[in-house]
Amino acid sequence: MATRRLFGGIDLGGTKIQTVVVDDGHEVLGEARHPTPTSGGPARVAAEMAAATRDAMAAAKLEPGGLAGIGVGSPGDVDEERGTVSGARNLPDWEGSFELGQALAESLGAPVRVGNDVGVATQAEAQLGAGRAYRSLLGVFWGTGVGGGLVLDGRHWLGRGGAGEIGHMVVKLGGRRCTCGREGCMEAYAGRAAMEARARKLHDDGRKTDLFKTMRKHGRDRLTSGIWERALETGDKLARELIDEAVEALGAGIASAVNLLDVEAVIIGGGIGVRLGQPYAERIANEMRPHLFNDHRPPAVEVAALGDLGGAIGAALLVASSDAGR
Amino acid sequence: MATRRLFGGIDLGGTKIQTVVVDDGHEVLGEARHPTPTSGGPARVAAEMAAATRDAMAAAKLEPGGLAGIGVGSPGDVDEERGTVSGARNLPDWEGSFELGQALAESLGAPVRVGNDVGVATQAEAQLGAGRAYRSLLGVFWGTGVGGGLVLDGRHWLGRGGAGEIGHMVVKLGGRRCTCGREGCMEAYAGRAAMEARARKLHDDGRKTDLFKTMRKHGRDRLTSGIWERALETGDKLARELIDEAVEALGAGIASAVNLLDVEAVIIGGGIGVRLGQPYAERIANEMRPHLFNDHRPPAVEVAALGDLGGAIGAALLVASSDAGR
Q1: Of A56, A70, B31, B180, whose CB count within 10 A is highest?
Q2: CB contact under 8 A, A293 and B170
Q3: A-contacting residues in B 26-65 (Cβ below 8 Å)
Q4: In this complex, do A159 and B291 lie within 8 Å of one another by their Cβ atoms?
Q5: Which positions ≥6 away from B295 have C-beta within 8 Å?
Q6: Contact (Cβ atoms closer than 8 angstroms) between residue A318 and residue A115
């Protein structure tokens, strides 16, 4: 027990904060999930992240101060050296740069490292999850937005620091306006935020749907992955239509990435991706097929094996692997 | 003179066969260009490649048998081990697999290595041309088709052997039919073969254009890069419209690739790319901009510095660098 070191991992998402406590064998000893605050800016988000970490520690029956380090997977522009996050578009009121690492280190009393959310989730799948068998893979995180992570020849590819923006590959010239302001991005069709905005507009225009009724019934203020899933199960026509468009856009965008990179595997993760699971991974693979140039040899398409916890486990790897290297 | 070794390079294109003779410092001592035969299949093409190589040798005042090795950059599916080429869609009557390396070695009396045309041209630009200053780049070869080559962290990225098919990235879901049979590919708008088919259809439908008149006047049977350039210069409206569409599709597709990979530079080569040069590289960069996610830091966009000879020089590198390694 004296030699076992424990690590915290925090996955900061647009909808939820997922935390884990893992041991040095990457086993999850405790976890917690809090909704991401929708107001109050970065300081409020950081306080909620700390609270969710304490809850995961309590679930692991761990005393305060018991973590050797905490890793964070964050959206936005992450400066890993300084532990700052700026331009986190999918987080509320996150203007300018915020010293997230320092705020959490002070609050939790342990060293903190901050990395890119999609990057750490991809690393987790590559090292511990559905990507273990492959040397090259594309992680596609289908959630509030659509993020991508690349492992090429066993190494995480970041380009000049900003690689992996698969959600903003253009799938339709002159197409739908994206939440990022650009036109025809894959995320404009497949991101949950964009899908919700589209559903709301069509509903306001008179289209029938139970999506918003179900949302209110479950006490939510946005269309979560669970609500989309329920609507598909009950045969809600608008929901089905929007998910069909999302799957079509994902198929085209992912096929484009595969035509460019010829990776061995595509791992589908993210809130909706994990929730809808294998049948939808297969639907995405089917939508990719007509666009694949090397169609005799499609890549494997698999659901993220670490599920909802992949991002948080990957975040913990930021400190667990740097610790191991010391 | 006794220690200087000379190498041949052959760039096999859908329209022309370009050959060079280079010394071990990569200096071009002689070159020749023959039209690619439009009938007779692989054997006829191989014979023309040998003839064009002999012409380059004659231009370099070199005796038969004077080459230490010959490299070939070929379209289609290249088996580098066996020197075979199959499925070369942009070459006439090239059904099944053909032992191109062996045919040329017998005809020219020197060892032959065959590589992918776009791959060798990208390597040439990365090592000797416009890409020398960059560790990561995307080569875009805008010609009969639109090919792509990737250098990531200084190494040529081939994936499982088929990477770089940037021409078949989807830029418009439900869009124009590509010459490959798929829908909405970048090449369906930007490839010279697709542009010619589109121009012919619109002309047959009654649109006015001098493209085909100019073609016949210059004794051509297809719309070469030079004919497109002339039509742009004389303000031919249909030509301008189709080139505008091509530039728009290139901008979207290349921006998508940059969003995914965040490379330092994009090198624009290929028959049309080199012919239209810097002003059109700038137009492509302008069309990329609205789609770039990291728009504060666009990649450099440059014209291939080795021009029309890049493919042939890159092909020679296949034997020159393997020779150097012995």
Answers
A1: A70
A2: no
A3: none
A4: no
A5: B289
A6: yes
The architecture of the domain spanning B134-305 is 2-Layer Sandwich (3.30)
Distance (Å, rounded) from C-alpha B17 to C-alpha B12?
Answer: 5
Within an 8 Å CB–CB cutoff, is residue A256 touching chain B?
Answer: yes
Which of chain B's residues have a Cβ under 8 Å away from the Cβ of A136?
159-160
Identify the CATH number of the domain defined by range B6-120+309-324: 3.30.420.40
Class of domain A133-305: alpha beta
Q: Nearest by CB to B160, which of A249, A264, A293?
A: A264
Contact A290 B183 (CB under 8 A): yes
pLDDT tens-digit map of A132-180: 999 999 999 999 899 999 999 999 999 998 899 999 999 999 999 999 9
Give me the residue spans of the domains in chain B: 6-120+309-324, 134-305
Answer whether B133 touches A (CB < 8 Å): no
Is B141 near chain A, with CB under 8 Å?
Answer: no
The residue among A261, A266, A284, A296 with the most chain B CBs within 10 A of its CB, best to mutate, is: A261
Angstrom distances, CA of residue B319 to CA of A240, B102, B157: 56, 15, 19
Q: Please, what is the average pLDDT of chain A? A: 94
Return the DSSP state at B73: E
Within this chain, domains A6-120+309-324 and A133-305 share the same CATH topology: yes
What is the complex's ipTM, to 2 decimals? 0.91
